[in-house]
Design brief:
With 293 residues, the protein is α+β, with helices and mostly antiparallel strands. It contains six helices and 14 strands. The chain has helices spanning 84-89, 127-141, 182-185, 195-207, 220-233, 252-269; strands spanning 13-19, 22-30, 43-44, 49-50, 56-57, 61-62, 70-75, 78-82, 97-99, 102-104, 114-122, 144-151, 154-163, 166-172. It has an eight-stranded mixed sheet. Strands 3-4 form a two-stranded antiparallel sheet. A two-stranded antiparallel sheet has the order 5-6.
Length: 293
Amino acid sequence: MNPEAPMAARPTWQGQLKLSLVTCPVALYTATSSSSNISFHLINPETNNRIRMVTTDPETGPVERSSLVKGYEVSKGEYVLFGDEDFEKVRLESTRTISIDKFVDETEIDRLYWDDPFYVVPEKGVGTEAFAVIREAMKNAGKIAIGCLVLRGKERQLALEVHGKGLVAYTLRAHDEVRQPEEFFDDIPAVKADKDMVEIATRLIAQKEADFDPSEFKDRYDDALREMIEAKKKGQGVVEAPEPEDTNVIDLMEALRASLKGSASSARRAPAKKPAAKKAPAKKPAAKKKKAA
């Protein structure tokens, strides 16, 4: 099976997507990447050697990780052992099939429960037509599909939604994994906000209203680390970051007014955006015939 996805990407999971009697083979790909994150290794400063983590038996010494099995502690110092063949025997339907059980409104799912996103891609061949049927039916329903999937050794509930020509599946956190907000919010003092201050804050929000553009976000901490790395490579020592301004607000009303005035000045200095010129609709190129394999 050859998933319709970039060659560099490897599927996290492969199996069947099922809606009642309609099924199709699909693959899941992680929708996010952490490859650009800065990572560090542990170094012994006396020798400048990188520290290696070695799996060790307290009685016999170092052992090969590949020879180890997993153990569940049933009582102090006593374990039930599990090898790969044991996990293979636990075969739920959701191990190889995402079965759509029901449809809900997106607003019914609290954002606290949304977790990791995955792209759902059909396998090439006859599965693409069945996938299109399921996708279009979901689009017409305007709902979020709910199903289950065994992923990374754990059965997870999934929320699936139409995204362009494909689907995006989000793993959902279990109810007992989410701390209830009442545990933290109930002790917040009941303070009646000043009406005039709320009005000024509302105007401040209106001045800062903008479209969401994730490409504008820059990890300044990550940038500062990279600057420090470059400085150390050149032998310049540590790059000091400026301390943040004091945020201890004494006069809240005065701070709100100053913020509102500062935002208004910034808005006046910013050049007005010119409306984009309308382009004539581009003609669709003629479909190319696929060469026989």
